[in-house]
């Protein structure tokens, strides 16, 4: 049912070796049939979080979580094999660079068919029919011809569409999309986003969309989480986040874009002087305090998580109304 929680992540932690704490207790949840956008500056831990959820971290990455559940299944205790069965089937991921998913050595048709063959044991002929149908669905004309082509014979926009179609082969419930349109020109970007929105409507797909583009967030997100230095510092329904950004970092990001209707296409995140700190395990306090105009000694200690009735959460010592008092 739309609205019911599909993916629930609590206290997600990822460390690389002894010196990098890339994700530090991040929490977020994605509801069935909805789009949850994850935003934040470069290096704040968005991709690592997505990869950790899918159990696709680079070697050396260690994952921990208080809760990591998908459709009621606890992903934490799953073997690599069980996880591989789930990936590409009930949950799929697409990337900024389609060649991360596409194999240059195989035709579009054979790699798309392989997904269904592996997960469902579908015959090659039926799998190719399904592939052709999905290529049509993502707006590729003459799908039969495309099935016989190799990835390098396609334009960037077409490759992106093929990657999306391939991710949909098994009709997943959740699609994690890591900046799927950043590398594309504006027109193709808009087409791909429309496509994702249409697929969501028709298939009830839940989408976790990582993006830098606030215009995209305003148009497609039901809910938004803002990440900073490995933590989700604020999370709210989209309209609520734009209307009442509360964490000083979120306010910095949205500075020039106070209401969704005023967000322009390709509106980048606002810029705040300084960069995201590289945080090591054992770091305490607020990761933003060195860049925050409101920081004091309290910010070096434990930071409270505030939650309002409307499910608007933020992680900061400041009271809920500090920025919104008349
Ligand atoms: N394999 C790795 N080994 C060590 N550190 C890593 C590894 N992968 C990522 N990191 C570190 O983890 C942190 C978070 O990286 P991540 O790629 O998640 O950022 P991001 O929010 O996706 O940024 P961007 O917007 O640029 O894609 C960064 O400090 C990065 O250097
Ligand atoms: Mg990234």
Structural summary, described in words:
The protein has two domains: 5-90 and 173-315, P-loop containing nucleotide triphosphate hydrolases (Rossmann fold, 3-Layer(aba) Sandwich), CATH 3.40.50; 101-171, no CATH class. It is built from ten helices and 13 strands. It has helices at 46-53, 80-86, 108-120, 124-137, 143-147, 156-167, 186-203, 214-220, 238-243, 248-254; strands at 5-16, 20-31, 35-39, 61-64, 67-70, 73-74, 91-94, 174-178, 206-210, 223-228, 231-237, 305-307, 313-315. The strands form two sheets. Strands 7-8-9-3-10-11-13-12 form an eight-stranded mixed sheet, sandwiched between helices. Strands 1, 2, 4, 5 and 6 form a five-stranded antiparallel sheet that branches. β5 and β6 (73-74) form a beta hairpin. α3 packs across α4. It binds adenosine-5'-triphosphate and magnesium ion (MG).
Outline:
By secondary structure, the chain is an alpha/beta fold. The chain contains ten helices and 13 strands.
List keywords for this structure.
single chain; 326 residues; alpha/beta; Rossmann fold; 2 domains; eight-stranded mixed beta sheet; five-stranded antiparallel beta sheet; 10 helices; globular; binds adenosine-5'-triphosphate; binds magnesium ion
